Design the sequence.
RNA sequence: GGGCGAUUAACUCAGCGGGAGAGUGCUACCUUCACACGGUAGAAGUCGCAGGUUCAAAUCCUGCAUCGCCCACCA
C-alpha cells in the first residue's frame, strides 16, 4: 500500500510534467501494437515543418489529437498517433540560404551537392525542436515511429507514386504559364500564390495602325509587359472596333508589328474594350495565344529583370524600374492616353511575399481531374466525413474547379524528379530504378531533371507512406484508413484534398474516416498569428506560466466547432484555477481515502442518499463526455467536466460529506463514504485525463487503490452496479431539495446581512408528504450546510414571529431572526421576489390565455407551462401572505 | 466577382424552435478544520437592425448594416 504523502498547498506543474512524460515514454505507453485483438484507432499528425517552432495552431492541433488518442486508449483501443515532420522545401531552403548569406556566400557558390548536405546538417541540429515542444504539450505520439518526408522509405513512396502516375498519363511535362517567384527563383502552384489587393494604376496606351491613320487604345495594369505583346484583341461584337480585326498595329517602343484579332473573350465593358495580348506573361493571354497561334515573347526573366527580347533599352532592368521607364517613354511619344487609379489583386509568393510573375516555363504537372473526381465521390458517399460539414461546400467547390497542379520546383531541397533525358534521342525516362542506359536507343548519356517536387507532393502520401507503403506492412493493415485527420482549414486544399486523391488512387481506400476541421487561433483583431506580424503568443511561455494542463483545458474549452479562438493569458488563468481546485480537492480527499484504504477498494453494503446522488451525477457526466469527444464537441466535454468537478463534486458533495468523515458516524457509514469519495475522485481523474494528463497522473499515483499509470486505466462506464456509478433519479431529486432549501436560507443571510458565522434556527412547512419525508431525512445535512442549529419540519408550522420567509418548490422556509429582523428590509426583499414572480407569471398566463397555444402546442408543452404557472402562483401566494402579515405588524407598531 | 462565418451581460464566448447561460470582471459579506488560484450571496442583456414563418423565435426564412475569413486569370 502506498503511503500518504502530504501534497503541496498549490499545484506546481513544472517538475510534475517532466517526470510523468518521461515515465510514460520509458514505459512504452504511447506505443501502438502492429497486431492486436483490440480495435484500432489511428491518427497521423499534420507534420509540422522542420523549420517550425511551436505556435498556437500546433498547440491546439496537438491538444485535440491528444485528447482523442488518450480517450480512445482509455476506452480500450489500440491507438497509433503517427508523428513526424515535413521537409518544407522552399521554407527550409530559405532558412539555410539566409545562413549562407550571413557567412558571405550563397548556394550557387557552394554547389548543389554541398548545399543539400548543409540542409541535412541544419535539419539534424534544429529539426528536432518542434518535436521537443510537442512533447511539452503532453502529446502521446508513438515517437519511435517518427517519420520525415525526406526519409528513405518515404522517398521510395514518392518515387513510386511519381512513376505510376507518369505511366498512367497523370503526370506530364509541358510549357505553360505558371506562377514564378523571382526571389525564390522557382515555379509555384496556384495555391501557393496569395492574392493581396494593391493600389495600382490602369494605363491606357495607343498602338498606332501599321497602315493608315489612327490606332487602338488598350488598357493595362502592367505596362512593361507590352514589350512582349504579340497581338491586340477586340470583341467581334464591339461596334467601336468593327473593321479593325485583321489589321495590324505597330507595337510602340519596339520595331514589331502585331495583328489585331477578334475574340469573344474580350469584355466590352472593361477599359477601352481593346486587350493587349502577352502570351508569355499572362494566363489569359496565353490561352488566347494558343487559340490564335500567336508567338510568345518572354520579356521578363527568371530573376525578375527584363530580358534581351525586351529590347536593348530595357534589358537587364528590374521589372518595376522598367515599368516606370516604359510609361515615361510612351508619354514622350504621346501614346499614353490616361492613367487611372486602379486597385486590383496582385499575387504574392506564400513563402517570401515577393510579387509573383506569371511566366511561360517548362514544368511538370499532375493531371488532377481524374483524381479530384475520386476525392469528391468519397465525401459525397460518406466514406469520409468532414466535421463540421460546413466545409463540404468549400471542399467540393475547390475540387470541382481544380486546375492541373504544377509540381516541379527550381530549388535544391526536396525529392529530385525521377526523370532522365537521353542526350542521344531526347527521350524521357521515368522508372523506379535509376536508368543506366536509354531503353529506346541504348544511349548512356542520361541527365536527370534538375528540379525537385513540390513539398506537398510528399505530404499528400503521408497517411500511407509513414506506414511503410509501398510495402504491405502490418502497420498499414492495422491502421489504414486512419480514424480521423485533425487539422485547421488553411491546409484543406494544400493537404487534405491531395491526401484524399492520392490515398484513394493508390490504396483503393480513403485515408481517413473523418476529417475534423478545427478553429484557427487568431490574435485580438482576428488576424492569423504569424511571426512576421509579431502578434504571436508563445505557447511555451503559456506552459511556463500556467502549466500545460491549464493551457490544454483552455484550448479544449474554447474549441467550439466552426469558430476561431482568440486567446489571452487572462483567459487561461481561469483554467489554471480549475486545475488548482482539483488539486485541493485531492488534498482533502486523499487523507480520508488513505485512512481507510480497504474501504476505498471494497463495495459497501449500502450507500447514503448523498453518495448515490454524486455517483448518479458522475454517471450522467460520463454518459455525456464520451460521445462529446467522439463527435469532436471538445468544448462541450470540457464544460461538462468543469461544471461537475467544481460545482457539484467540490461545492456540494465534498462540503456535505465532511461531517460524515469528521464527526461521529459508524464505521460502516464512514467506509461507504470513503468508497464513494474514492470512486468518484478516481472517475473524475479518468475523465479529465485526456484533457489534463499531467495533474491527473500525479494524483492518480497517490490514490491507494490504483496500480500503474492512469494511461492504463479504463474509461468508466456510466452504468455499472459494481462501481456504484449508476443513475439514481430519486437521490438526485432529494439532494436537489436540499440544495434548494440551503440556497434559500443562504439567500436570506446574504440579503439580510446576517453574518455567515451566526447560527440560526429555521422551520419548514413542507409542500407535501414526499418532501416532508425527504426534508426530515436530510435535516442533518441541511442544518450543516445552511449553518442552522435547529430545523423543524412540520406540516402545521406557522411563521414564527420575527422570521424571514422563502419558498422553494412549494416548501415554506422560515428563518428565525427574532430581535434582528429588519422589517423594512424583509419587506423590500419579499417585494423584489414577488416582482420577479409577476414577470414570469405574465409570460405563462399570456400563453395559457392564448387559444391558439392551447389548441396547437403539443400536450407536453402545455402541461409544462401549466405546472410552471401553478408553481409560480403558489409561491407568489405564500410570499404575499407573509408580506401582508408583516405589513399588519408594521401598521400596529 | 463568388462563397463562408460572426454580431447574446463590461470583456471573452456557449446556447441555435418552448422558462436568457458560463468564465473573467464587478458589488457585499466571510480568512470556517482542501483551496483567498477560495466560499456565500448579489447586480448586470429590447440575444446587430427591419420584415416574415409559427400557437411560440436569440434560435428558422428574407433583406440590410457592421466586422472577419476563404476562393477568383477581368486586362
Sequence:
Amino acid at each position: 500500500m502506498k503511503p500518504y504523502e502530504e501534497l503541496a498547498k498549490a499545484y506546481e506543474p513544472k517538475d510534475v510534467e517532466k517526470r510523468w512524460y518521461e515515465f510514460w515514454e520509458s514505459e512504452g505507453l504511447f506505443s501502438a501494437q502492429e497486431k492486436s485483438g483490440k480495435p484500432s484507432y489511428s491518427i497521423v499528425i499534420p507534420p509540422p515543418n522542420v523549420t517550425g517552432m511551436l505556435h498556437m495552431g500546433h498547440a491546439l492541433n496537438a491538444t485535440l489529437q491528444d485528447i482523442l488518442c488518450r480517450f480512445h486508449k482509455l476506452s480500450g483501443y489500440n491507438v497509433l498517433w503517427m508523428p513526424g515532420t515535413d521537409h518544407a522545401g522552399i521554407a527550409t531552403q530559405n532558412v539555410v540560404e539566409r545562413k549562407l548569406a550571413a557567412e558571405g556566400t550563397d548556394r550557387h557558390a557552394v554547389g548543389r551537392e554541398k548545399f543539400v548536405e548543409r540542409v541535412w546538417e541544419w535539419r539534424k541540429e534544429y529539426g528536432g525542436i518542434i518535436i521537443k515542444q510537442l512533447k511539452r504539450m503532453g502529446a502521446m505520439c508513438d515517437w519511435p515511429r517518427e517519420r520525415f518526408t525526406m526519409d528513405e522509405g518515404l522517398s521510395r513512396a514518392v518515387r513510386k507514386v511519381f512513376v505510376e502516375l507518369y505511366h498512367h498519363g497523370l503526370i506530364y511535362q509541358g510549357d505553360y504559364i505558371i506562377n514564378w517567384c523571382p526571389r525564390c527563383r522557382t515555379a509555384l502552384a496556384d495555391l501557393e500564390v496569395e492574392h493581396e489587393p494593391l493600389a495600382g494604376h490602369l494605363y491606357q496606351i495607343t498602338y498606332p495602325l501599321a497602315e493608315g491613320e489612327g490606332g487602338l487604345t488598350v488598357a493595362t495594369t502592367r505596362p512593361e509587359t507590352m514589350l512582349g505583346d504579340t497581338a491586340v484583341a477586340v470583341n467581334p461584337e464591339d461596334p467601336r472596333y468593327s473593321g479593325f480585326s485583321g489589321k495590324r498595329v505597330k507595337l510602340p517602343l519596339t520595331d514589331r508589328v502585331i495583328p489585331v484579332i477578334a475574340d469573344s473573350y474580350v469584355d466590352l465593358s472593361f477599359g477601352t474594350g481593346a486587350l493587349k495580348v502577352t502570351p508569355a506573361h499572362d494566363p489569359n493571354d496565353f490561352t488566347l495565344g494558343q487559340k490564335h497561334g500567336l508567338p510568345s515573347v518572354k520579356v521578363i526573366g527568371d530573376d525578375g529583370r527584363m530580358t534581351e527580347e525586351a529590347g536593348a533599352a530595357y534589358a537587364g532592368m528590374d521589372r518595376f524600374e522598367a515599368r516606370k521607364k516604359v510609361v515615361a517613354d510612351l508619354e514622350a511619344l504621346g501614346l499614353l492616353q490616361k492613367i487611372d487609379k486602379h486597385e486590383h489583386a496582385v499575387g504574392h509568393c506564400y513563402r517570401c511575399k515577393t510579387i509573383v510573375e506569371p511566366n511561360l516555363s517548362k514544368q511538370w504537372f499532375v493531371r488532377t481531374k481524374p483524381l479530384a473526381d475520386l476525392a469528391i465521390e468519397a465525401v459525397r458517399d460518406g466514406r469520409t466525413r468532414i466535421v463540421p460539414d460546413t466545409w463540404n461546400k468549400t471542399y467540393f467547390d475547390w475540387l470541382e474547379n481544380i486546375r492541373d497542379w504544377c509540381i516541379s520546383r527550381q530549388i535544391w531541397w526536396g525529392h529530385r524528379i525521377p526523370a532522365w533525358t537521353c542526350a542521344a534521342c531526347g527521350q524521357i525516362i521515368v522508372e523506379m530504378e535509376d536508368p543506366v542506359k536509354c531503353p529506346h536507343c541504348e544511349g548512356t548519356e542520361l541527365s536527370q531533371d534538375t528540379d525537385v517536387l513540390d513539398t506537398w507532393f510528399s505530404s499528400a502520401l503521408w497517411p500511407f507512406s509513414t506506414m511503410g507503403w509501398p510495402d504491405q506492412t502490418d502497420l498499414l493493415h492495422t491502421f489504414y484508413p486512419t480514424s480521423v485527420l485533425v487539422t485547421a482549414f488553411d491546409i484543406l486544399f494544400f493537404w487534405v484534398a491531395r491526401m484524399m486523391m492520392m490515398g484513394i488512387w493508390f490504396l483503393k481506400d480513403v485515408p481517413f474516416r473523418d476529417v475534423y476541421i478545427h478553429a484557427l487561433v487568431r490574435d485580438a483583431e482576428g488576424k492569423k498569428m504569424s511571426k512576421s506580424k509579431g502578434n504571436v503568443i508563445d505557447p511555451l511561455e503559456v506552459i511556463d506560466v500556467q502549466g500545460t494542463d491549464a493551457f490544454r483545458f483552455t484550448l479544449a474549452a474554447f474549441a467550439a466547432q466552426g469558430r476561431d479562438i482568440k486567446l489571452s493569458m487572462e483567459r487561461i488563468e481561469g483554467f489554471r484555477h480549475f486545475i488548482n481546485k482539483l488539486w485541493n480537492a485531492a488534498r482533502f480527499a486523499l487523507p480520508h481515502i488513505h485512512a481507510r484504504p480497504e474501504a476505498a477498494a471494497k463495495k459497501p453494503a449500502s450507500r447514503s442518499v448523498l453518495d448515490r446522488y454524486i455517483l448518479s451525477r458522475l454517471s450522467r457526466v460520463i454518459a455525456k463526455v464520451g460521445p462529446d469527444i467522439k463527435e469532436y464537441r471538445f468544448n462541450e466535454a470540457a464544460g461538462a467536466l468543469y461544471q461537475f468537478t467544481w460545482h457539484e463534486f467540490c461545492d456540494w458533495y465534498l462540503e456535505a460529506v465532511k461531517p460524515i468523515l469528521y464527526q461521529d458516524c459508524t464505521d460502516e457509514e464512514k467506509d461507504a463514504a470513503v468508497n464513494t469519495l474514492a470512486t468518484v475522485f478516481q472517475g473524475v481523474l479518468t475523465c479529465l485525463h485526456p484533457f489534463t494528463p499531467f495533474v491527473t497522473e500525479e494524483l492518480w499515483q497517490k490514490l491507494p487503490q490504483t496500480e500503474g499509470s492512469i494511461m492504463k486505466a479504463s474509461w468508466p462506464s456510466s452504468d455499472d452496479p459494481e462501481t456504484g456509478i449508476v443513475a439514481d433519479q430519486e437521490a438526485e431529486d432529494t439532494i436537489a431539495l436540499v440544495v434548494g432549501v440551503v440556497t434559500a436560507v443562504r439567500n436570506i443571510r446574504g440579503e439580510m446581512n446576517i453574518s455567515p458565522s451566526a447560527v440560526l434556527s429555521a422551520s419548514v412547512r413542507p409542500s407535501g408528504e414526499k418532501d416532508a419525508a425527504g426534508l426530515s431525512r436530510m435535516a442533518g445535512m441541511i442544518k450543516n450546510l445552511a449553518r442552522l442549529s435547529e430545523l423543524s419540519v412540520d406540516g402545521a408550522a406557522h411563521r414564527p414571529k420575527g422570521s424571514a420567509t422563502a419558498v422553494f418548490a412549494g416548501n415554506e422556509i422560515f428563518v428565525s431572526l427574532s430581535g434582528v429582523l429588519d422589517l423594512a428590509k424583509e419587506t423590500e426583499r419579499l417585494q423584489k421576489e414577488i416582482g420577479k414572480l409577476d414577470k414570469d407569471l405574465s409570460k405563462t398566463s399570456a400563453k395559457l390565455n392564448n387559444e391558439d397555444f392551447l389548441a396547437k402546442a403539443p400536450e407536453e408543452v402545455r402541461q409544462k407551462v401549466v405546472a410552471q404557472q401553478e408553481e409560480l402562483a403558489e409561491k407568489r401566494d405564500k410570499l404575499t401572505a407573509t408580506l401582508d402579515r408583516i405589513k399588519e405588524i408594521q401598521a400596529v407598531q
About this structure: The radius of gyration of chain A is 37 Å. The mean pLDDT of chain A is 91. The CA atoms of residues 17 and 694 of chain A lie 6 Å apart. The first strand of chain A starts at residue 40 and ends at 44.
